[in-house]
């Protein structure tokens, strides 16, 4: 549960209205799922906790946190109420997950398999990312599941570059 930093009152829930006090409201101490203030309260709490652990928040992506100690790095990415955890030291990643489960109500879902419409397959030496499922969902949405496929829907000799004089970035 995430504590609120503002006063919020809600009507008594249906089925739990106290007889004789139907006009009274409930004062919330903690955020309820679905409450519009809940995401802000959650981000505020997790942000404070991660920064107290020594993570630096990315300037360009406010939901990306990095903790580096020499060559060892731990990276956390937040997406709504999910955390993606990665790093170059497996025992540090596992230790971080255990510590987070002690502070927050969390479950370790193991290796990432789907994220933001992308399917991720991992093995020891490679990571394969595809959007086959996402593409099929779009086709289904527009009733195009049976449409004729094309192997390459564009000219293979077409150059996709912009010549604007700006140096290339690695």
Structural description of this entry:
The chain is extended. It has two domains: 3-110, no CATH class; 111-148, no CATH class. The protein has helices at residues 38-52, 90-103, 132-141, and strands at residues 3-11, 25-30, 56-57, 64-69, 72-79, 82-87, 114-115, 118-122, 127-130. The chain is built from three helices and nine strands. A hairpin with a 6-residue loop joins strand 3 and strand 4. 23% of the residues lie in helices and 28% in strands. The protein has 170 residues and is of the alpha+beta class.
Topology overview:
Blueprint: E1 3-11, E2 25-30, H1 38-52, E3 56-57, E4 64-69, E5 72-79, E6 82-87, H2 90-103, E7 114-115, E8 118-122, E9 127-130, H3 132-141
Antiparallel strand pairs: 1-2, 3-4, 4-5, 5-6, 7-8, 8-9
């Amino acid at each position: 549960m995430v504590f609120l930093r503002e006063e919020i009152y809600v009507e008594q829930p249906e089925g739990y209205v106290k007889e004789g006090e139907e006009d009274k409201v409930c004062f919330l101490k903690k955020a309820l799922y679905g409450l519009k203030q809940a995401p802000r309260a959650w981000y505020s709490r997790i942000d404070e906790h991660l920064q107290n652990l020594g993570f630096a928040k990315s300037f360009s992506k406010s939901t990306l946190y990095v903790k580096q100690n020499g060559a060892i790095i731990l990276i956390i990415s937040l997406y709504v109420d999910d955390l993606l955890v990665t790093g170059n030291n497996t025992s540090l990643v596992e230790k971080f997950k255990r510590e987070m489960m002690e502070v927050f109500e969390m479950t370790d879902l193991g290796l990432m398999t789907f994220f933001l419409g992308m399917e991720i397959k991992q093995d020891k030496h490679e990571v394969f990312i595809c959007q086959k499922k996402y593409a099929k969902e779009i086709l289904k949405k527009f009733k195009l599941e049976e449409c004729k496929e094309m192997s390459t829907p564009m000219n293979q000799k077409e150059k996709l570059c912009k010549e604007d004089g700006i140096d290339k970035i690695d």
